[in-house]
Amino acid sequence: MAHRLTLLLSSPRVAPGLLTRDAWDVLASAAAVLARDEDEAQAVAVAESGMPVAHVGAEHPAVLARLLADRADQGEVVWLGSADGDPGLTDALAAEVSRRPEPPEVEVLVGSWDVPGSRLLDLVAVMDRLRTPGVCPWYAEQTHESLLPYLIEEAYEVVEAIESGDRAHMLEELGDLLFQVAFHARVAAEDPAAPFDVDDVAAALVDKLVRRNPHVFADVEAETAEDVTANWEAIKAQEKPHRDSPLDGIPAGLPALARADKVLSRLERAGAAQVATDATAGEDVGAQLLALVARARAAGVDAEAALRATLREVEAQVRADGA
């Protein structure tokens, strides 16, 4: 008789029951399948497949290790790992097995792994917890409007992190920006008149990306980046036929240099570049600034980014001088 204890580990971010063939084979040949609680998702899925699962309840790791080793002395036993990872169990099992003169064989079998993007489910769960009534008064009272300053601030901090070249800083700031998206989606889910959630946000984005990239997802040809941009703009124009001006849709809150660059780009595509040329002919400061943005565009330079870079140099020099 085989005396083996298999610790079957699986990702809580993957639907229960989606296990490897090896995992199902081990379950089918086991003399006993054990789990902590009857409501453990993986235990429910295994039981629903027709395999009996015994529940041992919450035990101290040392007690649980002894119980599992005792059962393994009677044949092949599978322990369905709990969603929290059974903290302390592996150390307790090592101690239990090492003190036995004829210990059972212990095997760790991974039945499922996280898929790319699965940690986004953790973000949604954390956001749901933070927003749950009675948990945190600050999170509970936030609205789309109250969160706007944070959204703008986080977007600029992402820009700063990218331009700094600090990868750890970039990772952190992208996370903060992602959190703002998750927060707004969670608030939106509570709207009594027109609710939507993070899945709706993601679905709308996927639909848009597929629709606006027919060279990838359909049979449209686009050999250059310029072709891709032209296709995107043509499809966008069909989707938003209500726009009366090529300047519609440019956010008024953009920084002035970035907004000027966007306006010039739209006028060029609309065949109205002369309007911009006339505007840059003036002697006032605004016209001269617009002319500088036009020069930057012609040189392939992002005026907003160029000014930020110069300001960083100034700030670095001031700090170096101790001023």
Description:
Helix 2 (41-48) links the parallel strand 2 (32-35) and strand 3 (54-55). This protein has 323 residues and is of the alpha/beta class. The chain starts with a strand and ends with a helix. Among the domains are: 4-110, Tetrapyrrole methylase, N-terminal domain (Cobalt-precorrin-4 Transmethylase, domain 1, 3-Layer(aba) Sandwich); 242-303, no CATH class. Helix content is 58%, strand content 7%. It is elongated, with a radius of gyration of 30 Å. The model has no long low-confidence stretch (mean pLDDT 91). It has helices spanning 21-29, 41-48, 61-72, 89-98, 119-131, 137-141, 144-164, 167-189, 198-212, 214-217, 225-239, 256-269, 273-279, 285-298, 303-320; strands at residues 4-9, 32-35, 54-55, 77-80, 105-110. Strands 3-2-4-1-5 form a five-stranded parallel beta sheet.
Question: What is the CATH superfamily label of the domain at 4-110?
Answer: Tetrapyrrole methylase, N-terminal domain
**Rounded radius of gyration (Å):** 30 Å
Secondary-structure element pattern, one letter each: EHEHEHEHEHHHHHHHHHHH
- How many helical stretches? 15
How many strands in all? 5
Major sheet, described briefly? Answer: 5 strands, parallel
Low-confidence stretches: none
> What sort of overall outline do the alpha carbons produce when their principal axes are compared?
elongated
**Percent helix among the residues?**
55-70%
The name CATH uses for the topology of the domain at 4-110 is Cobalt-precorrin-4 Transmethylase, domain 1
User: What is the class of the domain at 4-110 in the CATH system?
Assistant: Alpha Beta
Keywords: Hydrolase
GO biological process, one term: response to stress
Protein name: XTP/dITP diphosphohydrolase
Pfam family, one: MazG
